[in-house]
Structures are given as C-alpha cells and as structure tokens.
Amino acid sequence: MLDSVQLHDLTFTPYLSARQIQERVQELGRQIAEDYAGKRPLFIGILNGAFLFMADLARACPIEADFAFVRLSSYEGTSSTGSVKTMIGLREPVEGRHLILVEDIIDTGQTLHAFLPELARQKPASVKVAALLSKPQARKVAFEAEYTGFEIPNEFVVGYGLDYNELGRNLPDIYSLAASTLP
Ligand code: XMP
Ligand code: MG
C-alpha cells in the first residue's frame, strides 16, 4: 500500500504502481522490438519527463538501436502554455532514419504537433511516437501515439519522470491529484 506524497503545496495519491508501469513498459518494448527488428531505429527521448521511461523502454527493447534526447518546453506548473520552445536540439542527423519519439505524456498534443513538422523537414524514413501516458480528453490538437502505455483521465499526474514544478520526477510510482485508484 503506497502512501500519498506531498510536493510543494499539493498532495498526490497513488495512481499507477511501479510494477504496473514496468509490466506495461516491457510489453511496449517487445512490441517495438518486433516492429523494428533489423531497422536500427533512433529513439529520441523528450527531456526531462521521458528520462526514466526512455531508460526502461531501451532495456525492454533488445534490438540494434540508437538513442538521443531533445529538450522541449511547453509546460509551467500544472498546465500547458501552448507555445513550444526547443531548449536542446538534436545533434544526430535524422535523414533516412526510423525515428521513435519517446514522451512521458501526451496532454493537449501541442508539443508534438509543433515538433513533428520540424522533424519531418529533416526527411526521416519514418516517425512514430511512444508515450507512456495519454490524456485523450485534454487534446487541443488531434494526435495519437502509435505506442501508448496507459490512457488516463484529464488529471495532473507526477512521478516516474513527471514533475510538479520539478519535484516528483524520481518517484518510482505515478501519483495523481485526483482520488487514489490503487488499493
Ligand atoms: P502537451 O500538452 O503538449 O504536453 O501534449 C506535453 C507535455 O506536458 C507535460 N505534462 C505533464 N507533466 N504531469 C506532468 O508532470 C501531467 O499531468 C502532465 N501533462 C502534461 C509533459 O511534460 C509533457 O511532455
Ligand atoms: Mg515533458
């Protein structure tokens, strides 16, 4: 039984356990390994939120692959600001590569809606998105990831890479501002 956690001024309740997360990440890794065998994809993790998901997904996907990170920013506090800045760009050439963007969560969809055309201009062979979490009810632009860990309600969540004003990223479990779903 997990306890609630206090981050800054807010209390978060347990939502997805580390075990549930790990099981799902293993499944996603196996699926991606099957789909990309022999293609040597380039995984592009979106910092900071995706750092743990990327690390676990990489280990769950035993094929030849490359790994890189970008840093984009659209979020402040508990809501998306709508504009997306590239804080750290890609150094790796992506022309002709099979890209898998690795995101912690898709909320309004605006981050990827802004970033995907930027990538497309560099002529990759293909681009797919792996998101650990998705909040379908929060979309402002239509967007679906090819690989989604969990669809969740429109509630703010923290843990496993996700933060509330930079706290909570190192929690192994995911917590929500809404009522607990774990026993
Ligand atoms: P958009 O709205 O562009 O948002 O799809 C994607 C980015 O917003 C952040 N985000 C969250 N961060 N808890 C967080 O800690 C949340 O519930 C949440 N929802 C969105 C996240 O950085 C994601 O990459
Ligand atoms: Mg993020």
TrEMBL record:
Q: Which SUPFAM superfamilies does the record cross-reference, listed alphabetically?
A: PRTase-like
Q: What reaction is this protein's catalytic activity?
A: IMP + diphosphate = hypoxanthine + 5-phospho-alpha-D-ribose 1-diphosphate; GMP + diphosphate = guanine + 5-phospho-alpha-D-ribose 1-diphosphate
* A single GO BP: GMP salvage
User: Which Gene Ontology cellular-component terms appear in the entry?
Assistant: cytosol
Lineage: superkingdom: Bacteria
Q: What is its EC number?
A: 2.4.2.8
Question: What subcellular compartments does it reside in?
Answer: Cytoplasm
Q: Which cofactor does it need?
A: Mg(2+)
Query: What are the alphabetically sorted keywords of the record?
Result: Cytoplasm, Glycosyltransferase, Magnesium, Metal-binding, Nucleotide-binding, Purine salvage, Transferase
Q: Where is the Phosphoribosyltransferase domain?
A: 18-164
GO molecular function, a single term: magnesium ion binding
> What Pfam families does the annotation carry?
Pribosyltran
Pathways involved: Purine metabolism; IMP biosynthesis via salvage pathway; IMP from hypoxanthine: step 1/1
PANTHER family according to UniProt? HYPOXANTHINE PHOSPHORIBOSYLTRANSFERASE, HYPOXANTHINE-GUANINE PHOSPHORIBOSYLTRANSFERASE
Protein family (similarity comment):
Belongs to the purine/pyrimidine phosphoribosyltransferase family.
Q: What is this protein called?
A: Hypoxanthine phosphoribosyltransferase
What organism is recorded for this protein?
Answer: Phaeodactylibacter luteus
